[in-house]
Description:
By secondary structure, this protein is of the alpha/beta class. The protein has 2 domains: about 10-320, Divalent-metal-dependent TIM barrel enzymes (TIM Barrel); about 325-405, no CATH class. It has helices spanning about 20, 40-50, 60, 70-85, 110-130, 155-175, 200-205, 220-225, 230-240, 270-280, 300-325, 325-340, 355-360, 365-370, 375-385, 400-405; strands at about 15, 55, 90-95, 135-140, 145, 180-185, 195, 215, 250, 285-290. The chain has an 8-stranded parallel β-sheet. Strand 3, helix 5 and strand 4 form a beta-alpha-beta unit. It starts with 13 loop residues before the first strand and ends with a helix.
Amino acid sequence: MNRDQFTPKKEDRFTFGLWTVGNRGRDPFGDAVRPPISPVSIVKKLSELGAYGVNLHDNDLVPFDATNAEREKIVREFKTALKDYDMQVPMATVNLFFHPIFKDGGFTSNDPRVRAFTLQKTMRAIDLGVDLGAKIFVLWGGREGIEVDASKCALEALKHYREGINYLTEYVKDQKYDMKFALEAKPNEPRGDIYLPTTGHMLGFIATLDHPEIVGVNPEVAHEQMSGLNFYHGIAQAIDAKKLFHIDLNDQKPGRYDQDLRFGSESLKPMFFLVKLLEESGYQGSRHFDAHAYRTEDEEGVWNFALGCMRTYNILKYKAKQFAADKEIQDLLQELATERGKDQYKLDKYDRNTVGKLKEAQFDIDALSKQGAKYEQLDQLVNELILGVRTRVASKDENLVAAASR
């Protein structure tokens, strides 16, 4: 592998799920096109490519019907591989969507026996995650939904969902586990409609829980873009709420089925602003890639896919530094800020002593209406920066130029 400034390193905190690079290319219309790759082999190869860690569903590692002896052997060998190849498991999750028992949901099933099994399986998956060192436990409610509205009362379904999450947070606190939960939204597929379909829905739901302080979100690019939403905006809201506990990076053609494409393969400008936000906001979590190689690929193509995800992130991170160092862009932003003036009315907070000044203020409505925003110019500069034709733009700040070149 040729090494350059975009080559992934452990400190980049890039992670992949066992289910991502382990994806065999099966889809609803065709069987697998690649042989399975063992978890130990995945750990070894990802480490060689510069990844920081691997994440997993319980059954990615331990088969659903494994005996206790089989489970112990599998986990022991996996932990040895993690140590041998200096890899971490920052996040774990549970598969509540594959087995037929979950065909009508787990937490929101009408059958209390299914809800009980869901909690049992999830607690065991939490125990596994803690054993492997995970600090985040993701819950994706892929089967928590409906095709027939008459089949479930939506209020009862949300009640059961809330009861399930409350039970698990109590379990984690009772066991004194150092673990937080991250809820993952998706609008549809595999269900016709999935409860809590967007990150915004999840944030509202979290506020109703018994222990919201240990529950955040795990937004996924594809899941938001499936319904035409702007992922960058959703992440900003999650960061603003201090609830971005984890993130799933991939790509997606809007309005299509869940594609899980290589990061940055379709949406370069939106992903540029996403990376810029993550880096500049101080987000400390993993950069997790929940994607998989095209069905056309063999195993070599799988590793090219994984490397491509990480390199694209690092390239966009570099572009974000260039944005900060670009004199023309920064001058334009400063010009716009100056033209708009200072906030003389103290709009950040209501003040009874100054509200009268605001109520009596005179505004030049006509002039404000005619004022151009210069967004066309700004957007074109961003396009040219991303396309790589602004690499020699001078900066007023030599430190910024140095930062952009690293």
